[in-house]
Specification:
Length: 222
């Protein structure tokens, strides 16, 4: 795991909390903190070079998002993630993706298109070996961030982001079983997304994401 130093003197209190929250949430999402891991405030404060207060505030956000829970005598624990617990959230994600077309930006920014193209270049280098699972997850994770940039409606974007983080671990835990098909699927998805983005077709883009989520649900359901 890569340690990331946050220099307190360069950030406001709010920015410091935001940065710590972002880093911890990403680690949870990408299974660097596996379910039932214990997060220790003192260790994190030492890593980030700050007091325990911003760490505590960041953890409160994670708890609100359902990613950690606090237990007396134990501390802060990363929550478990399984499909049965989160299948309703997955269903809502399908509907949210369908709404992107009506609540997205008018023109897809060039930096988003360039970002998609960069991810496609990386995806084409993937091979269906177990050591590639993390890179597949990282590509998908960064793709999520690009899609968030084209959702113009703040409320929709917040829901899209929250439900991704709540459910993504379920898929990333199971993905090594489907790695060969997933490598092909992510290349196909990116090709389709780039074409839709270049046409500024947000409706098509939303349904491409919806179909990818539906595919994942089908695999998780067996």
């Amino acid at each position: 795991m890569t340690n990331i130093q946050i220099k307190p003197e360069q950030l406001t209190a709010r920015q410091r909390i935001d940065s710590i929250h972002h880093i911890l949430r990403e680690r949870i999402c990408l299974l660097q903190y596996v379910p039932l891991s214990v997060l220790r405030e003192a260790q994190l404060a030492d890593e980030f070079g700050c007091s325990r207060t911003p760490v505590r505030e960041a953890i409160k956000r994670l708890e609100f998002e359902g990613l950690v829970t606090s237990k007396n005598g134990v501390g802060t624990i990363v929550t478990e993630a399984n499909f049965e617990l989160l299948k309703d959230v997955y269903t809502v994600r399908l509907k949210i993706a369908e709404l992107i077309g009506g609540m997205g930006v008018t023109q897809v920014p060039q930096e988003v298109i360039s970002g998609l193209q960069a991810l496609l270049t990386r995806a084409k280098r993937l091979t269906p070996h177990s050591d590639q699972a993390l890179e597949v997850a990282r590509i998908n994770h960064q793709l999520h961030g690009l899609i968030c940039q084209i959702i113009d409606n703040v409320a929709l974007r917040q829901l899209y982001d929250l439900y991704y983080y709540q459910t993504s671990r379920v898929w990333y835990q199971q993905m090594p079983e489907f790695l060969e098909s997933e490598v092909a699927a992510i290349v196909d998805e990116l090709v389709e997304l780039i074409a839709a983005a270049q046409r500024h077709d947000l409706v098509a883009l939303g349904y491409i994401k919806r179909n990818y989520i539906a595919r994942v649900i089908g695999l998780l359901q067996g």
